[in-house]
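Box 3.1 A note on notation
Throughout this textbook, protein chains are presented in two layers. The first layer is the amino acid sequence; the second is a token string describing backbone geometry. Keep the layers aligned when reading.
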Amino acid sequence: MFWPSGGHCCFFCCLILIWMKKQREPKRCWRIRGYDSLTLIFDQSVPFGQMTEGNMKALLRALVAKDLLPHELMGAYAKRGTKIHIALLEIQKEKQLEKRRTVYTCGNNPYYTADIELLR
């Protein structure tokens, strides 16, 4: 198809192809879970584009911090290597090669995890 200006519809064809590709792409989400020992206490999904990796890490720290006692919270914010430092709010990053994903974990008990999953 040709336009009156002498050009053709390549631009519009490209837009349509891009749109069609986006429709086929799987939708991803952050899956946040909280556990007390092995008991699931929290399970929520957030669309991937609505939260950055940095925000997700901050959220994991906040979820863990809400259950800490005041002296544990002070220790978690103390400088590393000091006598009162406790590594309760540090994020652990584990690459699961068999599932081709990364899982972020924070806390001891309760603890929270976040990873990226495909929406079904």
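The first strand starts at residue 28 and ends at 36. The first helix runs from residue 10 to 24.
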